[in-house]
Amino acid sequence: MAKAERTVELTNKMGLHARPSTQIATTASRFAAEVQISKDDTVVDAKSVLDLLMLAAECGSQLTILAQGPDAAEAVEAIVKLVEGRFGELDVDG
Question: Most exposed residue of 34, 76, 78, 94, measured as fewest CB within 10 angstroms of its CB?
């Protein structure tokens, strides 16, 4: 079974709050692969918004995206794209 893994830095100012968690879960759910995200020693189901929120990932956190299944590489790349694009958030002060 295909596996894929990639580590990325969370760079959006507000970290992994409800909206980015929902975006990740929605994206992960489009794939047949089992998708997980880990931070430090905690591994959660990337298809669960509540699990993702439990990571309490702040700006600067290292997230490892792991997937296993027929479309594992595509799932990991789709989530990496979200994280690297800072979930479409504009980091403005004030």
Answer: 94
